[in-house]
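Quiz preparation item.
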């Protein structure tokens, strides 16, 4: 009972902190551990979160104070999203930048202030790696927004004939002389002799060939 009352008191005290400090409020879009969703209710001992799958999760209030909480709606709901994109080495990087900015301008939920931005991240093994940065005022719809943007990006890249390559591995072969050690030469000779002996045994045990030799004689 002592341990049970201790947990109840801890969650109740955490609930009071949430009420007075207001790090989260009803309607906020938050991430708590592995859970992501909208805060539906803040109670004395627990908080109810409705996930994007419309599943209600009851989270003890103490978890909001013991672990890091991402509140996408806290104070300013405007958030920036990162979309990595890899293209082939053939196109001009400036053309890729222009294509990604065009794709961002086609979605109504992408804010134009602050402006979208394209970063040239690195020279990858098979791709030139870029990152499209866009701003949205609806962070709870960020997963749908990313999906829509990737559809648009693919369409724009296809229209501009900018290739999205598959991962590949190039193998280069060089002609030359293969040098065998004495041990390898001896092993090859023994293998050839063994195969020759096996063929001789098969020939000597073939009754058809034996009969034929008798008739010829």
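Solution:
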């Amino acid at each position: 009972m002592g341990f049970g009352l201790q947990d109840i008191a801890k969650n109740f005290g955490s609930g009071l902190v949430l009420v007075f400090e207001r790090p989260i409020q009803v309607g906020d879009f938050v991430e708590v551990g592995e859970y992501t969703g909208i805060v539906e209710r803040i109670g004395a001992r627990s908080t109810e979160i409705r996930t994007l799958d419309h599943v209600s999760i009851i989270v003890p209030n103490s978890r909001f104070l013991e672990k890091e909480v991402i509140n996408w709606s806290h104070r300013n709901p405007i958030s920036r999203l990162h979309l990595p994109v890899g293209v082939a080495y053939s196109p001009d990087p400036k053309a890729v930048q222009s294509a990604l900015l065009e794709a961002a301008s086609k979605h109504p939920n992408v804010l134009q202030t602050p402006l979208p931005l394209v970063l040239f991240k690195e020279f990858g093994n098979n791709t030139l790696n870029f990152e499209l940065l866009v701003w949205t005022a609806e962070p709870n719809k960020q997963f749908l927004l990313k999906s829509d943007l990737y559809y648009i990006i693919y369409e724009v890249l296809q229209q501009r004939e900018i290739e999205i390559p598959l991962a590949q591995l190039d193998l280069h072969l060089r002609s030359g002389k293969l040098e065998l050690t004495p041990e390898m030469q001896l092993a090859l000779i023994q293998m050839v002799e063994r195969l020759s002996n096996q063929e001789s045994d098969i020939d000597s045990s073939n009754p058809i060939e034996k009969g034929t030799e008798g008739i010829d004689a």
